[in-house]
Specification:
mainly alpha; globular
Length: 489
């Protein structure tokens, strides 16, 4: 049991930070009544957490690689506990929004360091099991957030959503400090211009997405957000090309496999979890369910997710990434399309889509971090995993903003709005999955080039024993012998 205590510590932190990305969705009416907040302010109670999380994730991954992932994770947990207590004690909506922003900053520090921490503790077969368990927890937490919010709001009150987070974060902090091994510092130089420019770019795009969903995609706020994101992204590219110690290796973006991993992360989270607020609104509107009943219906998805990950998690690493990542994302897209068969007032008509999206996400999530880390050197594994998580978080943000906007455009309680949102989510899931399958395909090699790495990287050579060396310095262990044999062919 002691062997798995570090995994328990990291999974608790993962569950905590991802549950709080969606936990307040069902409780917004109660928060508005208690604090006298209008709809726009309530939207920012939800969105500011996502904004901070997505905007700072990659920069926090770079800081973790430099300063030590253990230190950054523990600092994030402590800050998260304080911010959660501040959210529960907030006497007005402005204070609540500020406390949620601090929660998001702390969550970014935690999220960016979790995967490399697991990779540094476990090896061999245990590492595959650890990543499968972590992926299951990470994938299901977003779905469980709505459920936890509904239950706590129904039986207690909205501040208890945050009061419960503070002691859980402190418990996780104490356990993590006791069981996670101390780390040496990584690279000596911190690429502060790279961290700043990328954080501004991600924040600008996320702000534009959120504002577009709220005020329309041609609104001044949305256009300013996108313009700021583009300018900051150009500045980030400039700094990375001229930095002696760049935060992010731009060469990773020339690897088809790495791009396929990012695309799958973006597509499956958008199609599978970005539509949950729409389903929640439809269930409370057209189906006339209360918050608790809505939460129970949505529970189907995480239950199927856990069942899929639990039954197949250790075997998924034996599949080619195009089948687990690409195929799972395609299945999520099919599940989203199944919501188009929903009938007015009939909550059972959603079950098929919830089952399929849960099963598809259960195929993707357990192997996503390992495949992302395999594309980067060990010294940059934090940035690689943070990039995959950043793509996943931006997919969730875009999904919530766009799908909710489409739903309201057709009438907030009309089934036609649900059908339109489901169609869009399904097409994005199918398209992202199909393209990821293509990008993650083993590359044909010539006689002089040798086999390519599974993540779409440069050709590898063989050692005297005939085993491909770990040219990436990353997690080659995560890719099965069957996949390596296919790549060699």
């Amino acid at each position: 049991m002691r062997i798995w205590l570090p995994l328990i510590a990291t999974c608790l932190g993962t569950f905590l930070l991802l549950v709080y990305s969606t936990i307040v969705t069902v409780a917004m009416p109660d928060i508005g009544t208690a604090l006298g907040a209008d709809f726009g302010s309530l939207q920012w109670v939800v969105d500011v957490y996502t904004l901070a999380l997505a905007g700072l994730l990659l920069g926090m991954g770079s800081l973790g690689d430099v300063l030590g992932r253990n230190r950054l994770y523990l600092a994030g947990l402590g800050l998260f506990a304080l911010a959660s207590l501040g959210c529960g004690l907030a006497g007005n909506v402005t204070v609540l929004i500020l406390a949620r922003a601090v929660q998001g900053i702390a969550g970014a520090a935690m999220f960016a360091t979790l995967v490399p921490l697991i990779g540094s503790v476990y090896s061999g077969h245990r590492k595959g099991i650890a990543f499968a368990v972590w992926g299951a927890v990470a994938g299901a937490a977003a779905g469980l957030g709505n459920i936890a919010g509904g239950v706590l709001t129904q039986f207690l009150s909205w501040p208890w959503m945050f009061y419960g987070g503070a002691p859980l974060a402190l418990l996780t902090l104490a356990l993590s400090a006791a069981v996670l091994p101390a780390e040496q510092r990584g690279r000596s130089a911190v690429d502060y211009p790279g961290i700043l420019t990328f954080s501004l770019a991600a924040t600008g795009f996320t702000f534009g997405i959120i504002s577009g969903g709220e005020q329309g995609w041609g609104s001044m706020r949305a256009l300013c957000g996108f313009a700021a994101g583009i300018l900051a992204l150009l500045a980030f590219r400039y700094t990375q090309r001229r930095s002696a110690h760049p935060m992010f290796d731009l060469g990773l973006l020339r690897k088809p496999g790495f791009n396929g991993t990012l695309l799958a992360a973006f597509g499956y989270y958008l199609a599978g979890f970005g539509g949950l607020p729409v389903l929640s609104l439809w269930l409370e509107g057209s189906a006339r369910l209360d918050a608790l009943s809505t939460a129970l219906v949505l529970t189907v998805q995480p239950l199927v997710f856990f069942a899929t990950s639990g039954l197949l998690g250790s075997r998924l690493h034996q599949l080619a990434p195009r089948l687990s990542l690409g195929g799972g994302t395609v299945l999520v897209g099919i599940g989203a399309l199944a919501w188009m068969f929903a009938r007015d007032g009939s909550w059972p008509s959603l079950l098929a889509g919830l089952i399929l999206t849960g099963a598809g996400a259960g195929l993707v999530s357990p192997v996503l971090p390992a495949i992302a880390m395999a594309a980067a050197p060990a010294s940059r594994s934090g940035v690689a995993s943070a990039a995959a998580n950043c793509a996943r978080q931006i997919g969730l943000t875009l999904g919530i903003a766009v799908l909710t906007s489409v739903f309201h455009q057709y009438g907030a309680e009309r089934t036609t709005g649900l059908h339109a949102a489901a169609l869009l989510a399904g097409l994005i899931g199918l398209g992202a999955g199909a393209l990821a399958c293509r990008l993650l395909r083993p590359r044909a090699t010539g006689p002089s080039s040798g086999p390519r790495s599974p993540a779409g990287g440069p050709p590898t050579t063989r050692s005297a024993s005939g085993t491909p060396p770990n040219t990436s310095g990353g997690a080659r262990w995560s890719l099965s012998p069957r996949w390596r044999a296919r790549s060699a062919r």
